[in-house]
Specification:
Elements (H helix, E strand, L loop, with lengths): L9 H14 L8 E6 L3 E6 L4 H12 L9 E2 L18 H14 L6 E2 L5 H16 L2 H11 L4 H8 L3 H11 L1 H14 L4
Helix pairs in contact: 1-2, 4-8, 5-7, 6-7
Length: about 190
């Protein structure tokens, strides 16, 4: 998280909320470990390849628009999931992810990073960063609903807005483009 030393206390409430939401996605088929590290870092390990990039998108969609952008660094390792406390996993990938996170904390154009990320994915994630950084709170709410597959008519009911207002916010938030980026990432990494 950028500028975390100046962050108000509610920022940590947002991190806690996101952690709970991500935990709710866990299934018996996938091991998922989350914990705070160094006060501002949400540390996630998953047994499913490339799953953390989708979790990053979800966390970004939940993160409130603020002066403290949520930065996401992830890495996929061809190794077995640690059977002991994952926080104590001393794998070189952990260091690589931390280094890429430090690099993007200073970035003005990228909120996502991964060691050895392919150029096409890097460009797609820059576009996703731009989308996430420009949405208003209402557009963000519309985006969250839209990404779950809810129709614009249903979103209008849930937000107590007209369908035309929701349609406008779908256009302005560029959530359709974000959906294309997510599909591209899923296809590139052959995720199901």
């Amino acid at each position: 998280m950028s500028n975390s030393t100046k962050a108000p206390p509610e920022i940590y409430n947002h991190l806690s909320f996101i952690e709970r939401k991500l935990r709710s996605l866990n299934t018996d088929n996938n091991k998922l470990y989350m914990n705070y590290r160094m006060g501002e870092e949400l540390f996630i390990i998953s047994s499913q390849p490339y799953y953390t990039i989708l979790l990053s998108f979800y966390a970004k969609s939940l993160w409130p628009a603020s002066n403290f952008p949520l930065k996401c660094s992830f890495h996929t390792v061809d190794d077995s999931y640690p059977e002991y406390n994952p926080d104590r996993w001393n794998h070189p990938a952990i260091k690589a992810v931390r280094e890429s996170l430090e690099a993007i904390k200073k970035s003005k154009v990228q909120d996502f990073s991964s060691p050895d990320m392919p150029k096409g994915i890097e460009i797609a994630l820059m576009y996703a960063t731009d989308i996430f950084r420009t949405v208003t709170p209402l557009q963000q709410e519309v985006m969250q609903y839209y990404l779950t597959g809810i129709s614009q008519k249903e979103i209008a009911k849930l937000t107590q807005r007209s369908v035309s207002t929701i349609s406008k916010h779908v256009q302005v938030s560029r959530v359709k483009q974000l959906s294309e980026i997510i599909d591209y990432v899923i296809e590139h990494y052959e995720m199901e």
